[in-house]
From TrEMBL:
This is SDR family oxidoreductase. CDD domains: SDR_c. Keywords: Oxidoreductase. It holds the Pfam family adh_short. InterPro entries: Sc_DH/Rdtase_CS, SDR_fam. Belongs to the short-chain dehydrogenases/reductases (SDR) family. It comes from Streptomyces osmaniensis.
Length: 233
């Protein structure tokens, strides 16, 4: 069976992607910082789909933890897909740039960019050996548009987009997709803008966009989930 590593997989989009892949028979290595929630997610997926699901709790900014994720995937047979979904906002709720603590920006960059690159570096030998290896980095429209209070988070996602674009050039044997999932009802969004009560799509409704990329394997690049769901690229 193909093997995927998914970070930030205990809830939200990460869990929805894990559910969609497990339903297709994928074996999974899942990461999140809260052990109890992550282990419950892994148990539910194993029971529902009969696939191998390994829970490896920890912080993606820790090099030892990243190595443990890749080692767990190697035990399952390798790495066919790496999904960098774990994200940090930089402040909760979001703040204007004149109030954003430098430590918060550093945390967003460490989680969203530096850790994502570190995990790719750790997994590259197995991704190259997979034959059809793929990397997905979860982006945001804040990476491309200027929204008040989203400056720190958006800057980190813009950096992640550029990292993914360069990786796609440097690794022509892989597919590297940066994916903007669009608005979703997630804990991350609720923490970012706690006063926004507008209804938003569930993460499970967005997962088919990611599956389309895996099915059709378009060129490396940046894609928007809403367009993929509508049949466009």
């Amino acid at each position: 069976m193909p093997v995927a590593i998914i970070t930030g997989a205990s809830k939200g989009l990460g869990r929805a992607l894990a559910e969609a892949l497990a339903a297709r028979g994928w074996d999974l290595v899942l990461d999140a910082r809260t052990p109890e929630v992550l282990k419950e997610t892994a148990s539910v997926l194993r029971d529902a789909h009969g696939t191998h699901v390994t829970a490896v709790p920890g912080d993606v900014t820790d090099a030892g933890h990243r190595a443990a994720l890749v080692a767990a995937a190697w035990q399952l047979g390798g790495v066919d897909l790496l999904v960098s979904n774990a994200s940090a906002l930089g402040s909760e709720p979001l703040l204007r740039l004149d109030a954003l603590p430098p430590a918060g920006l550093r945390r967003a960059l460490e989680v969203n960019v530096v850790a994502a690159l570190g995990l790719v570096q750790e997994a590259l030998p197995l991704l190259r050996a997979a034959g059809a290896g793929a990397v997905i980095t979860v982006s945001s429209d804040a990476a491309a548009e200027a929204y008040e209070t989203w400056g720190g988070y958006g800057a980190s996602k813009a950096a992640l987009d550029h990292l993914a674009a360069v990786l796609g050039e440097e690794e022509p044997g892989l597919r590297v997709w940066a994916v903007d999932p669009g608005d979703m009802a997630t804990d991350l969004y609720a923490a970012a803008v706690p006063d926004d009560d507008d209804p938003r799509p569930a993460p499970a409704s967005v997962a088919p966009a990611f599956l389309r990329l895996l099915d059709e394997r378009p060129a490396s690049g940046r894609y928007g989930a809403p367009a993929l769901l509508e049949g466009r690229r």
